[in-house]
Amino acid sequence: MAVKTKFGGSFTALVTPFKNGALDEAGLRELVNWQIEQGSHGLVPVGTTGESPTLTHDEHNKVTEWVVEEAKGRVPVIAGAGSNSTKEAVALAKHAEKAGADAVLVVTPYYNKPTQEGMYHHFKAVNDAIGIPIFIYNIPPRSVVDLSVETMTRLFELKNIAGVKDATANLARVSQQRHAMGPDFIQLSGEDMTALAYMAAGGHGCISVVANVAPKHCADLMSAVLKGDYAGALKIQDRLTPLHDAIFKEPGLAGAKHGLKLLGRVHEEVRLPLMPVTPPTGKVIRDAMVYAGLLN
Predict the structure, then answer these.
(1) CA 225 → CA 4, 10, 140, 161, 232, distances in Å?
(2) 170-196: string of b/e by CB count within 10 Å (b at 16+)?
(3) What is the set of active-site residues?
(4) Is the pTM of this model over 0.90?
(5) Is the pLDDT of residue 2 over 60?
(6) Is residue 208 left, alpha or beta, with left meaning phi > 0 and alpha meaning psi from -120 to 50?
């Protein structure tokens, strides 16, 4: 079974609420409090779901500060600090540490297609610049590069590399990484639908998009797994399966914002080039939320 870690369980990949094109600070702070009240084990602001690609650096830093302030140490905050520029990733990570984040999430450099050696030095530069844990975000479908198990093993020798958010959709990876680095390497699923299976192979938790809309269900599922109650977790998974599908019919953050709008939590506003979900997808999301018991 997974080792005990404060970075275990259900971590919400938080959306960033907007109002008339600007950051909605009040909406974000309310969302943080609701997430914690609903049982989320941790928060991950300014990742892809937080629309980091279309935030200015100033906005990115403000969101990190507000989430850390509002969380007040009640749950750990893993702040997004990724960039395809190593210099920018270092600057974002240093700011997150200064703001009081518990850890940072650093994505593999997208678009430039670096080699394994280039990626090693990218993460090493972030490691050498800060003193808090670093989670590698490995997501080949978005970044076009895949950090190998071998490179990850080298990185785990560095003092601050703590684990991975694995969005490879390859369930063999959790076992391979566990074999290479042992049970202390913290493995967080980056994919809602397969998170339960990921946990069975030795994962420690999930950084979840669906937890924006169903924080209690996602937290309860992870809590059940961490207690070894896979039958209980499967019952929750069965209720969530249509929602896992529905949220990702169009870009996941747009689906999550639509679900949150239906719950009366945030405005549905997203930034171009993303768009709010289409009416047919909106209906699928609503029906899935009804099925999960989130709406009447």
Answers:
(1) 12, 11, 27, 25, 8
(2) ebebbeebbeebeeebbbbbbbbbbbb
(3) 137, 165
(4) yes
(5) no
(6) beta
Quick one: three-class SS letters along 119-167? HHHHHHHHHHHCCCCEEEEECHHHHCCCCCHHHHHHHCCCCCEEEEEEC
Q: Quote the tokens at residue 122.
A: 């990218």
For all residues of the chain together, what is the average pLDDT?
97
Cα–Cα distance for residue pair 289/213, rounded to 1 Å: 9
Task: Report how far apart, in Å, the C-alpha atoms of 94 and of each of 2, 79, 102, 177 are.
Answer: 30, 11, 12, 27
- Judged against a pLDDT cut of 90, whether residue 1 lies above it is answered with no
User: Using 50, 70 and 90 to split pLDDT, how confident is the model at 273?
Assistant: very high
Residue 4 has pLDDT above 90, yes or no: no
By the 8 A CB rule, do 67 and 45 touch? yes
CA end-to-end span of the chain: 37
Q: Which two tokens stand for residue 118?
A: 């280039």
Q: Evaluate if residue 116 carries a pLDDT over 90.
A: yes
pLDDT in tens, 206-258: 999 999 999 999 999 999 999 999 999 999 999 999 999 999 999 999 999 99
The CA-atom distances, in angstroms, between 5 and each of 8, 226, 229 are 5, 11, 18
In the chain, alpha helices (H): 25-37, 57-71, 86-99, 116-129, 140-143, 149-155, 172-181, 195-200, 215-226, 230-247, 252-262, 279-291
90-99: average pLDDT: 98
Residue 193 has pLDDT above 70, yes or no: yes
Residue (of 236, 243, 275) closest to 262 by Cα position: 243
CA distance 137 to 109: 10
